[in-house]
Fold this sequence. Notes:
By secondary structure, this protein is α+β, with helices and mostly antiparallel strands. Helices cover 17% and strands 32% of the residues. It has 1 helix and 10 strands. It has a 6-stranded antiparallel β-sheet, with no helix packed on it. The chain is globular. The termini are far apart.
Amino acid sequence: MERRDFLAQLGIGAAFALTATCLHSCSKSVTTSPSGGVDFTLNLNDAANSALKTDGNYIVANDVVVAKTITGDYVAATVVCSHQQLKQVTYDPTANNYVCTHQGSRFNLQGGVVNGPAATSIAVYKTSLTGTSLRVYS
């Protein structure tokens, strides 16, 4: 192979690699759940977690929004919004749902989109309360 042919093939390969990367970043099928799953326990008697004793409050732990809903149930979801992959998801007790504070997307407690600009759901996790230990897991 001559040098000219080699450089031409190299240029085509580089163009393909850049195009594929750009197209992938625009894809709507990006996963929002943290890699490796979620499994941790919060002690509700710890000062850092005491907000979870009151209905309507939430904390962020391990990139997960953990909330005690206005009805007293514990729920958890990723802090990563499915729209721009930013860690901006919080719990909104007035609407009893999750909200991305960056773009305003809202998600129900099951992770589904209530309103955009997000078009895909966010990851939600299971919770289990035993005494004062709240387990959050996938």
